[in-house]
Amino acid sequence: MRGKPITLHATAETLNILKQHIFNWLIWPDFNLIPSSDQPFMAYEPLSVGETIALGECKITSLPASHVVPAVGFQLDSGLHSLVFSGDTTVNDELWQAVNSIENLSHLIIETAFSNKALDLAVASKHLVPSLLVEELKKLKKPAHIYVTHLKPGEIELIMSEIERDAAEFKPRMLQNNQIIEF
User: Fold this and answer.
1) How many Å apart are CA 110 and CA 88, to the nearest integer?
2) 3-state class of 141 per DSSP?
3) What percent of the chain has a predicted confidence (pLDDT) above 90?
4) Interval 68-109: pLDDT, tens
5) Model pTM score
6) Strand locations in the chain, DSSP E?
7) CA distance 126 to 65
8) Does domain 49-174 have CATH number 3.60.15.10?
């Protein structure tokens, strides 16, 4: 029913993982080859960190992330404002360098997966805890509405109470299910 394939933009490393472990004819078909390689349902398009793609009037730029598996964050730029989503990441000076160069930054969604008591696990799995989040937010040089995401079930209240206590100056809020952010 489509006139052109769905384009999957991802880093080359992520595309290779998807092809090897998901679209491998064992888990799912390789939609890049069906119904034919000339007219596939899906096209793979490598995206390098820092590369921008245009989707209509909006632009998406991949941002550096530091995680145990290949990952990136994203800048979504409406032309008027930008929203940054950190993706899964940890302490990451490259991310803040990129974020601070965004002239029209208005929203930041950043992960904080664990409470402070799980610092060792967070460091090993390259995630943030509230104490690390505070140190990372100190690197932000622009005003932005800050939303926290990726909180582990069973610890949501504890994580948010630690964030509200330690990062109050940044006024972070928990990203809600089905929340709409217009920018």
Assistant:
1) 8
2) coil
3) 97
4) 999 999 999 999 999 999 999 999 999 999 999 999 999 999
5) 0.92
6) 6-10, 42-46, 52-55, 58-64, 72-77, 82-85, 105-111, 145-149, 173-174
7) 10
8) yes
